[in-house]
Amino acid sequence: MSETTRPATSKSRSNRPKPAKASGLVVERVFSTEGVHPYDEVTWEKRDIVQTNWKTGASVFEQRGVEFPDFWSVNASTIVTTKYFRGAVGTDRRESSLKALIDRVVTKYRTTGEQEGYFATPHDAEVFGDELTWMLLHQYFSFNSPVWFNVGTEAPQQISACFILSVDDSMDSILNWYAEEGRIFKGGSGAGVNLSRIRSSKELLTSGGTASGPVSFMRGADASAGTIKSGGATRRAAKMVVLDVDHPDIEEFVETKAREENKIRALRDAGFDMDLDGKDIVSVQYQNANNSVRVTDEFMRAVEDGDEFGLRARLTGDVIQTVDARELFGKISQAAWACADPGLQYDDTINDWHTNPETGRITASNPCSEYMSLDNSSCNLASLNLLKFLSDENTFEIERFVKAVEIIITAMDISVTFGDFPTEAIAETTRNYRQLGIGYANLGALLMATGHGYDSDGGRALAAAITSLMTGAAYRRSAELAGVEGPYNGYARNAEAHQRVMRKHQAANDELRTVNTMDADIQHAATEEWDQVITVGSENGFRNAQASLLAPTGTIGFMMDCDTTGIEPDFSLVKFKKLVGGGSMQIVNLTVPRALAKLGYTEETIEAIVAYIAEHGHVVDAPGLKPEHYEVFDCAMGQRAIRPMGHVRMMAAVQPFLSGAISKTVNLPETATVEDIADVYMQGWKLGLKALAVYRDNCKVGQPLSTGKKEQKTEKVVEPQVKIEYRPIRKRLPKKRPSYTTSFTVGGAEGYMTTGSYPDDGLGEIFLKLGKQGSTLSGVMDAFSIAVSIGLQYGVPLTTFVQKFTNLKFEPAGMTDDSDIRMAQSIMDYIFRRLALDYLSFDDRADLGIYTAAERTRYLDTGSYEPETPEIEPIEEVKETPSVQPTTSLKETQQVTPAVAELIVAESARPATHDARTSAELMEELTGTSVDAPLCLTCGTKMRPSGSCYVCEGCGSTSGCS
């Protein structure tokens, strides 16, 4: 939508002084339809939302008759109902429709924008509201959770999820830190702080005593966070603690959590309950924070060169101790190997991209490390659903993406105007610098759908181009808003630095090397945006000190029905899907058939590959799939899990195009060494990341894991003993299969038998109907049918069942209405004789003495049961091999739309296994390996990684991230 200038007609309601406004925004309608409300364009339906904790059986939540569009998944509607609807459950004040939720939020944004003079006319404000409503309704983006919690309610209008605090070297400041963190935790958000101003335990107090050091004060803050968590919060308190690498207490800080992890192991082995929510875990310290070391270029170069490094007194800056830099770096890596903490934050890189250095340095981050800005500040987040901008023809809709960014940035800036904040210091800094954090989710799904491997040059180029376009459009809109509302209050003193960072972003975009037409077109559009950023920004300044970052998007990612969160790759190819009305299904990701079509495969081959994935959970040796295409389907876990450096390289590709940083943990296998951790940390610095965290599978004890992975309790390393275990493999029937129903009468008792068979391989299931529905006999027949069907699918030969169940004698017995079986000794005798006649070969039946009426007649006439002509052998199935070239052109296969892809996936859908309740648990069953993640404290299911924390796809709860 184009922007023109008109005199603004609305007046500001704010009492604070503002520069004269040059214009108001003119908003062109792009997504919504003139004269039609967005709600009237979709079909709505009522649903019952009922949640229980599967472990305890306790009811967690219940609200019936809630209203959602029919295309919203059960998962998304459940999460929105339980997390974001306001009002007491069971009362008239409780929200019961998505309409009410969106209207509550959008109305506040629109009316505030009008009052503050953001729009040229009331009509532009109306269009803005419609566009915002349409995108939220259709899951194109989402605000961060505090917006949904608070905006438009009677509660304080808390809009920010990320906070950075500050602590000085005084007891008053330290105690104030405790209080401020507590208020933020109470509101459901997280905070980070750098403790490096606090004197070390090697320095003296003014009274002559020795200082306690920052690590000692961490105990009090950790206890506070744990107490607030146990006081009824729905998730753990989220906090980040940072210490500079030149602090004299750095070694104590580095080893703090590793020592506690050893304590956890010892207490667990002694019989104490050390699970994440165990009653004894509270005795262990420092478990409520993520710890990070702030390293400098000087230190990292000293590590490379093997030099000594000086630790400095906090008050004077004098070197009071020297350490071997390489040895200290080794201790950092060793601790991270042992317990995943500490992570690293690269100080010089962070501050080199800082738009406000004249105001102060960036010293800390929020708990997930994506928001990095001034002390005592906050950030409002929103994330785009990238897959929504991929057309049915597999082109990225550049213009719609840019227009979406414009609307979202405008809304986010409006929210800073009406937002409330937990402290006056945070409120002042946020209003003066107006930090925003637009980001995205579903990158992994977008890359797969377009035929790009996550760990590939093409995948990284596409991700970088999209990120550059997003941030460029965001800053261009920020410059336009500065022309309407004025630049942020701190811009004047930082104008030169801010413009320098804009030129750095522009230069990074110019240096981006594209691989194909898609990313080249996006990069070209980004180039135009950055040109406007420099031009318009030099004239107007900028409304916002910060524009973009990549958050974990855990709960809001599920709200948008995203397959992948933040910058993460797809978790797995097979997913767990809840169904309307109850129940669940195991399905293959809808992006898989879409990707296969993009790669040029025929519809028949796509169906075969999807069926193979449904059975095995991966693509290795899938029929007809070329090995060179395997990388497109690499995921976070499974047989072809993405390598650790693949994650690091993706982060490095997009980092130059973000104002902030990236919330992501690089996962390493349990077999990873300390040297592997050190290499990841070193490469993160060399590749220009701002922050990096790692996690080695099963390195932590203090969380409940699945029982699929047993703890090794032996003290010494022993040679592994290979145990080969042979198990039957279940061959499930396809979604569509041949079947027919036979009615029968045995001794006057009537019944029906329905059989289903594999297209080429015999009987696979039976269903017996005998007796009235709900009767004991009917129930016994149902159970018997299931048992036989499962046996058949696990490979028990039908001949075995026939041998065991024919000739059984019990009532009812006698005459039948079947010309081939005139007399039966029981129902079972008849059933399995009929199955033998229908599904066994002549030779197999002859061995069992079971013949048709025609064969018995032939024996009387000829003395032989054998047919006069030999039976025609079944034609052997012709199977495609990986060498077979697809016969359908790419142009033809691009007609496989998302709707067709959903039908293809539906063909391979099957009831989820009894034990699995989430995709993580489903992959555990398919692969036989454990997903190293905690169980959800709300519903008891296995969570899955999301950025630097974990999120539950069942109820949307997180392990600490906002």
UniProtKB/TrEMBL annotation:
<keyword id="KW-1015">Disulfide bond</keyword>
<keyword id="KW-0846">Cobalamin</keyword>
<dbReference type="Pfam" id="PF02867">
    <property type="entry name" value="Ribonuc_red_lgC"/>
</dbReference>
<dbReference type="InterPro" id="IPR000788">
    <property type="entry name" value="RNR_lg_C"/>
</dbReference>
<dbReference type="InterPro" id="IPR013678">
    <property type="entry name" value="RNR_2_N"/>
</dbReference>
<dbReference type="InterPro" id="IPR013344">
    <property type="entry name" value="RNR_NrdJ/NrdZ"/>
</dbReference>
<dbReference type="GO" id="GO:0000166">
    <property type="term" value="F:nucleotide binding"/>
</dbReference>
<dbReference type="GO" id="GO:0071897">
    <property type="term" value="P:DNA biosynthetic process"/>
</dbReference>
<dbReference type="GO" id="GO:0031419">
    <property type="term" value="F:cobalamin binding"/>
</dbReference>
<feature type="domain" description="TSCPD">
    <location>
        <begin position="734"/>
        <end position="838"/>
    </location>
</feature>
<feature type="domain" description="Ribonucleotide reductase large subunit C-terminal">
    <location>
        <begin position="160"/>
        <end position="695"/>
    </location>
</feature>
<feature type="region of interest" description="Disordered">
    <location>
        <begin position="1"/>
        <end position="23"/>
    </location>
</feature>
<feature type="domain" description="Ribonucleotide reductase class II vitamin B12-dependent N-terminal">
    <location>
        <begin position="50"/>
        <end position="139"/>
    </location>
</feature>
<dbReference type="Pfam" id="PF12637">
    <property type="entry name" value="TSCPD"/>
</dbReference>
<keyword id="KW-0547">Nucleotide-binding</keyword>
<dbReference type="Pfam" id="PF08471">
    <property type="entry name" value="Ribonuc_red_2_N"/>
</dbReference>
<comment type="similarity">
    <text>Belongs to the ribonucleoside diphosphate reductase class-2 family.</text>
</comment>
<keyword id="KW-0237">DNA synthesis</keyword>
<keyword id="KW-0170">Cobalt</keyword>
<comment type="function">
    <text>Catalyzes the reduction of ribonucleotides to deoxyribonucleotides. May function to provide a pool of deoxyribonucleotide precursors for DNA repair during oxygen limitation and/or for immediate growth after restoration of oxygen.</text>
</comment>
<keyword id="KW-0560">Oxidoreductase</keyword>
<feature type="compositionally biased region" description="Polar residues">
    <location>
        <begin position="1"/>
        <end position="12"/>
    </location>
</feature>
<dbReference type="GO" id="GO:0050897">
    <property type="term" value="F:cobalt ion binding"/>
</dbReference>
<dbReference type="GO" id="GO:0004748">
    <property type="term" value="F:ribonucleoside-diphosphate reductase activity, thioredoxin disulfide as acceptor"/>
</dbReference>
<protein>
    <recommendedName>
        <fullName>Vitamin B12-dependent ribonucleotide reductase</fullName>
        <ecNumber>1.17.4.1</ecNumber>
    </recommendedName>
</protein>
<dbReference type="InterPro" id="IPR024434">
    <property type="entry name" value="TSCPD_dom"/>
</dbReference>
<dbReference type="InterPro" id="IPR050862">
    <property type="entry name" value="RdRp_reductase_class-2"/>
</dbReference>
